[in-house]
């Protein structure tokens, strides 16, 4: 992931303004440590901090068309750039960068080209011929982006809040799937409007091979890289499927020819955590070169302030999950890896969170998945993007491929419903799609492992330790005044209060605090889904263990038995290798 910053239509073209833009751009350098670029045209400034993944030698930004009248600063990956280039035969490209197609597509199609891009992106395009500009963000908000307005009439765009929060009178998260155009008077326009967006109940019958094929395509296209890469492997269903498909298809790719056919996998957790055990088992099954990172509760607590600064949220579950990912990303980058594939998005698409067990009917089930996908940019996408980019590491998320989402969200939601009496646990349709007896993708008990939220899977004592630490720093008197100190999104727990105090120190503006979502939640549900079970109102916690009567280690101590099929033997044609262990030490 790169870092972009743009100031458009400001009232100052002095050297001092240019210096200020450079200063703010440097705040994003962690996202792109490989090169810095800036372009100025009158009262417009475009700055870029590059993380070089494709064409490291010549793809520095900003990017231009042939006569340099169109200027683009972009953060993202365009997976179909080679196909798009074929349709631009009359154009001359200055670089081999996948993002180089954007300026030329604009020349051919105007602002209507955005839906042609298959990938993740945030970009600012300046047309110097008439000083018009456009800003766009990818379909579901995998890349982070903010927009702000200055008192002098200027418009600001930044990959992170820290690039603009001090200079804007108001700023907000740029909405995913939208573009902002000066030509249309400076308003937002929704370019991504798939059939599932209106939340009407679809009726396509479940076809396992269609799901399998669509997801394999999503993973394969994300193997486009000119730098070393790996996979995040927690041992849960989603990351294990990503790793399995990558291991099957890596041989023969450009990446394999350049960096070798051995896939590297990475896992993080407290000593003895569920994820470490499961991740190691899957790695041995797939034959990956496995790197296991350990951290202690104190390691995580010591990193909380850095995490909140980088991830720019005070949402409890996001901070809980971001911290181990933040620590792991630093270790991964130290090994020379610049890109990883990750499993975010599956739970939102297939109803994988444990509270979906209580969905009353298929309409409620489907509408909740729609709400969850639309909110991903505030939660898991924000975490995956910013926790990794804090150390110049890029995370790619194949479950959030546009075509795969369309395929999965067109299914009749009856097939996604959780029915234990029929042997259908959460994400049954995905599990069944990859349950191949002849050439198994995963061991059966991994394929049918119960959902663990990342903040739980790294070790249950992680969350318990955070709560204990917060209780030492937030007293009852502080909590009694919480509604007066924090009238917006008032923290209801000491843990939430603790995170809020830190956030407000870094980002004290009202615009900043309202970028963070709030509302009642249990096991990562939306506020609407809390209504599914009256008992949940007594245990409002985003941890999966709050799904009392569903999670195997629920907070109330209840146990739920899930019969698991017998495991398959390992895939014969993938070599077995010993794992490598790297330990985080304080």
Describe this structure in words.
By secondary structure, the protein is of the alpha/beta class. The protein has helices at 15-26, 81-86, 101-109, 208-221, 237-249, 254-259, 274-286, 297-311, 316-334, 346-350, 362-374, 380-389, 402-409, 428-433, 444-447, 454-457, 460-473, 476-480, 482-485, 494-506, 510-513; strands at 3-8, 35-41, 44-50, 63-64, 70-78, 119-127, 132-137, 146-149, 155-158, 170-173, 178-181, 187-190, 229-232, 264-269, 289-294, 339-341, 394-396, 580-581.
Can I get a quick summary?
With 586 residues, the protein is of the alpha/beta class. It has helices at 15-26, 81-86, 101-109, 208-221, 237-249, 254-259, 274-286, 297-311, 316-334, 346-350, 362-374, 380-389, 402-409, 428-433, 444-447, 454-457, 460-473, 476-480, 482-485, 494-506, 510-513, and strands at residues 3-8, 35-41, 44-50, 63-64, 70-78, 119-127, 132-137, 146-149, 155-158, 170-173, 178-181, 187-190, 229-232, 264-269, 289-294, 339-341, 394-396, 580-581.
β-strand percent reads 15-25%
Number of helix segments?
Answer: 21
Class computed from helices, strands and strand pairing: alpha/beta
Instruction: Give the overall pLDDT as a whole number.
Output: 91
Per the principal axes of the C-alpha atoms, what is the gross shape? globular
Strand count: 18
Instruction: Enumerate the spans where pLDDT stays under 50 for 5 or more consecutive residues.
Output: 558-586
Report the oligomer. Answer: single chain
Spatial strand order of the main sheet: 2-3-1-9-8-10
Largest sheet: 6 strands, antiparallel
CA gyration radius, whole angstroms: 23 Å
Proportion in helices = 25-40%
Intertermini distance:
28 Å
